[in-house]
Write a structure and sequence with these properties.
- The protein has helices at about 5-10, 65-80, 165-180, 190-210, and strands at about 25-30, 85-90, 100, 110-120, 125-135, 135-145, 150-155, 160-165.
- It is an alpha+beta fold and about 210 residues long.
- It has a single domain, classed as Peptide Deformylase (Alpha-Beta Complex).
- Strands 1, 2, 3, 4, 7 and 8 form a 6-stranded antiparallel beta sheet that branches. Strands 5-6 form a two-stranded antiparallel ribbon.
- Helix 1 (about 5-10) runs antiparallel to helix 2 (about 65-80).
- The chain is globular, with a radius of gyration of 17 Å.
- Bound molecules: nickel (II) ion (NI).
- Nickel (II) ion binds near residues 133, 134, 135, 175 and 179.
Length: about 210
């Protein structure tokens, strides 16, 4: 099934209660009551591209996990799967609230939702990973970060959970949480590289506008 189909089953549009996660924030399709409404509707959101200044806005905490937030999560997840990407922060879609969606599974069927996420522990050991970002298309570079982290967040029921992460998930979480602080991964690179990327991205934007 396509990620969109899975999502439609998972969320079923506004008004359907989002069922319990597994306590680690992962929503597994098979654990859920499946509901698909004919009037389900989700919009693909526009992803801001570096060096858009709105990517530097600091996101505010979510006050309450309500239907509005659930719809934002559904739209963000759809946007991430469609891109395709393994993670998306609300900041990237010009929503300045602390919401992150991630799916690092091979099958792209384990959506993880983090509302008001905080890193509460980071390992002293670091690891370098080649990162990319939906806001910096076609650009990848090495960033060094703590190899393991522990994150605290709210799930879609507004329930707090903690999660230990390593590998790609740890990288992805740190990358997305940076977005919520208004930081894009290229800002870890040299000033020279940042300037080059910025110029390339501006050129790319002009070409895309020219094609319209
Ligand atoms: Ni990113």
């Amino acid at each position: 099934m396509s990620p969109l189909g899975i999502l439609l089953m998972m969320f079923g549009g506004i008004g359907i209660d989002i069922k319990h996660s597994d306590g680690r924030g992962i929503l597994r399709n098979q654990d859920r009551q499946i509901a698909l409404l004919d009037n389900s509707y989700m919009a693909l959101l526009t992803v801001l591209c570096y060096p858009d200044p709105r990517l530097h806005q600091v996101a505010k905490p979510v006050a309450q996990v309500d239907a509005r937030i659930k719809q934002i999560v559904a739209d963000m997840a759809e946007t991430m799967y469609e891109a395709p990407g393994v993670g998306l922060a609300a900041t990237q879609v010009n929503i300045h609230e602390r919401i992150v969606v991630i799916d690092v599974s091979d099958e792209q069927n384990e959506l993880m939702v983090f509302i008001n996420p905080e890193i509460i522990w980071a390992s002293p050991e670091k690891k370098s990973w080649r990162e990319g970002c939906l806001s910096v298309p076609e650009f990848y570079d090495e960033v060094e970060r703590p190899a393991e982290i522990r994150v605290k967040a709210l799930d879609l029921n507004g329930k707090e959970f903690e999660l230990d992460a390593d590998g790609l998930l740890a990288v992805c979480l740190q990358h997305e949480l940076d977005h919520l602080q208004g930081k894009v991964f290229v800002e870890y690179l040299s000033f020279l590289k940042q300037t080059r990327i910025s110029q390339k991205m501006k050129k790319r934007a002009k070409e895309l506008v020219g094609q319209r």
